[in-house]
Amino acid sequence: MVDLLTRQQQQKNENENAEQTQSQELAEQSNAPETIDPECLIKHPLQHTWTLWYLEADRTKSWTDSMNEVTSFSTVEDFWSLYNHIRGPSEIKVGGDYMLFKSHIRPMWEDEANKHGGRWTLTIQKHLSDKYWLETVLCLIGEAFECSEQVCGAIVNVRQRIDKISIWTANYENHAAVMHIGKIYKDRLKLRESIQYQLHKDTMIKSSSSGTKTTYTV
Questions:
Q1: Cα angle at 91 between 90 and 94, to 5 degrees?
Q2: Among 199, 206, 210, 207, which Cα is nearest to 115's?
Q3: Sign of torsion, CA 82 157 205 179?
Q4: I need a labelling partner for 155 at 20 to 30 A (CA). Which of 24, 136, 167, 173 fits?
């Protein structure tokens, strides 16, 4: 029995010593500086800061009251963090809109940056909305257009049967810039059908964009 107790005590002491050694090793490891890839600490800035807006489909509210500023981002990493945590156009309520604009521009015709401009408009089948909206957003924040200073923002309108995406530009009289944006946009989306450019001043006096005069086509 004594021998057994002795062996048990020895085993206990050995276990305690082993635990103490492991604790010391863990303490040393925790005090040692971690090696972190510098790339993990760097965020990649975008050329502009962008603000995402959401227009909720609520007929009891005015258009202005229905506008919700979601958040702003200015780096690649912050964009993907946002994108991965919000619903796509296919998941939001019919009648709602997503609007992505440069942070100093409000998504309305009356804004100083928009009132002399227009929009390239694309009507799409609902099952393509998420794909085309993401590509549109990447065109904007990735500066796909040489005349990016002419780009104000983009909107996706979620409707009952079809959806619509539009890119807003600053000055419809800048024909070269407007046409460049339209051609690049059409190529990026690999569209076969034509897309139309409409002036905001014409859209404002029409009840629907279907009755708005087309100024340019690509």
A1: 80
A2: 199
A3: positive
A4: 173
Is the distance from CB of 165 to CB of 154 less than 8 angstroms? yes
Which tens digits make up the pLDDT trace of 110-145? 899 999 999 999 999 999 999 999 999 999 999 999
Distances 124 to 24, 121, 163 between C-alpha atoms, Å:
64, 10, 5
CATH 3.30.760.10 fits domain 41-217? yes
First-to-final CA distance of the chain: 97
Domain positions in the chain are 1-32, 41-217
181 touches 147 (CB < 8 A): yes
Burial of 60-88, coded b for 16+ CB within 10 Å and e otherwise, reads eeeeeebbeeeeebeeeebbeeeeeeeee
Nearest to 133 by CA among 152, 112, 158, 110: 158
Q: What is the CA radius of gyration of the chain?
A: 28
Q: Give the list of residues 6+ apart from residue 115 with CB closer than 8 angstroms, or none.
A: 109, 200, 201
Q: Which residues pair with 151 in a beta bridge?
A: 169
How much is the pLDDT for 132? 97
